[in-house]
Amino acid sequence: MQSQTNLNWGIAAAGRITQDFVTALGTVEKSRHVVVAVADVDGQRAQEFAQRNQIPRHYDGFDALALDREVDVVYVGTLNPFHYAVVHLMLARGKNVLCETPMCLGLEQAKELYSLAEQRGVFLMEGMWSRFFPSYERLRELLNNDVVGEVTQVKIQHGFRLAQMERVCNRSLGGSILMDIGIYALQLGQFVFGVSPVKILPSGTQLNKDRVDVQGEFMLDYGDGRRLLALVTGLENLENDAVITGTKGEIKLSNYWCCTQVSRTNGPPESWPLPQAKFDFHYTNTCGLRYEAEEVRRCIEKRLLESPKFTHAESLELMAITDEMRRQIGVTYDL
């Protein structure tokens, strides 16, 4: 009976983030996740990925993966400009899909994909992995229980030396520090305030020679004296914490986008350590992709078409905000 309840994954792209995802799946206790196939535009890379991770099938290109009948759900971890085409292909073939952030490079493309998923009756989620960490459940409780009173400000500094990485600095690859890590600051504002911002004010933007933002600050005004202040940069390493200030105290999220420790005024810090894994991870706390995978499994088992923890509407709202911010700072893509 066990095999009937397994969730069979196909992996679209043999890269660093997909390797971390597969490694993270291996840490889920009593796991019902099985990776049955991997595909990449480079067949050799797919073969090496399959051998390293003991995956039974590997494909040269994504068409064969879309046609693999054993695959229940596909994790799409290609470079950003290719998300739209690969997700579209999988949805059209009736596959459930988890797509790495950002879902697309523009709002209209994202709307089209969610619409297609609904037409086909399949599950689709943008991998806003922050939302599925136990720390965010705890944050929701603290906010609901009025532990820090009325929240007035969320302040974030998020920076890594990324400005030379192709995926961040190259316009044709969908480069943008906003689209790479800035979206995590935006999702926290959305999570805490629960309403759309009434004003979006980017400032201090630095564009590189390819007219891609490598650093920027932004202020989002949510009305009634509530605001999000963020500095995101690919030029230096920062603390990478978020401080949520209310009328009765503060909550601090360490590594706020993949948070494993929450501390607050007049309370002990709480932490949720991540387990050891078979391989080392390429990125900060990506073992936490296990939480996102478990959410996908729960949703598919319940035959849900979206996750209540990160809905299609929330994803589209963030996409609309990034579209507007890119319009203001002059970062465009050839879609």
TrEMBL record:
EC number: 1.1.1.179, 1.3.1.20
Keyword Kinase appears in the UniProt entry: no
GFO/IDH/MocA-like oxidoreductase domain mapped to chain residues: 136-251
Assigned keywords, A-Z: Oxidoreductase
Catalysis performed (reactions): D-xylose + NADP(+) = D-xylono-1,5-lactone + NADPH + H(+); (1R,2R)-1,2-dihydrobenzene-1,2-diol + NADP(+) = catechol + NADPH + H(+)
Taxonomy, superkingdom: Eukaryota
Domain Gfo/Idh/MocA-like oxidoreductase N-terminal: 8-127
Protein family according to the UniProt entry: Belongs to the Gfo/Idh/MocA family.
Name of the protein described by the UniProt record: Trans-1,2-dihydrobenzene-1,2-diol dehydrogenase
Organism: Drosophila rhopaloa (Fruit fly)
